[in-house]
Amino acid sequence: MNRDVAGIILAGGRSRRMGGGDKSLLALGGARLLDHVIKRFVPQVGPLALSANGDPIRFAGISLPVLPDTVTGFAGPLAGILAGLDWATDHTRCPAVVTVAGDTPFLPENLVERLVAATAGAPGSMAVASSGGRRHPTFALWPTDCRDELRRFLVDEDNRRVSAFIDRRDCIEVDFPIEDLSGQRLDPFFNINLPDDLAEAERLSRSMIA
């Protein structure tokens, strides 16, 4: 566990491709998607919170702070990241936040360790995860002192692209291997966007138990 890093689970998406609702509350292997994410993420960080808009009562059984966006309008993942940075600055002593998506049940169990290690020689830098030649912008380490810059980016420039903000910063890319699971390839950042993805996650989950 890295107690100097706060964790933020991004669960504020509208889940349109899944028919709406809270994708992170869908069932997977006898638990919710969010439960799988928390199980893998909580041992890696100190303070942990959930970024989500709407009535927080639907997350009442999770026992985490629920953070609504701190900018108006539905501004996507960057608004959730900003809310997490605001929360970490105001309620913790952590100098950095690591964000993960709430629909990725197989996220790496050494995610935070490797992101922090990548920035050890470059204080104030960002680190972002990648796998299979693809960058995953919502899986990143964000220094809390970037929050004012991020707020200007979102509000004044009206730019909501996570990758566009990352490209502005001194960002280090950290590659995570595609895993072999009983002869099958498993990207640890596999996320669930469609009903077929949920069925695939069920199959992968069973293979991990077998």
Structure report:
The protein is of the alpha/beta class and 210 residues long. The protein is built from six helices and eleven strands. The chain has helices spanning 33-41, 77-91, 111-118, 147-155, 162-168, 195-209; strands at residues 5-10, 27-28, 31-32, 48-51, 66-67, 96-101, 126-131, 134-143, 171-175, 179-181, 184-186. Strands 5-4-1-6-8-7-9 form a seven-stranded mixed β-sheet, with helices on both faces. The chain has a two-stranded antiparallel ribbon with strand order 2-3. Strands 10-11 form a two-stranded antiparallel ribbon. α2 packs antiparallel against α4 (147-155). The longest helix has 15 residues, at 77-91. The protein is globular. It starts with a strand and ends with a helix.
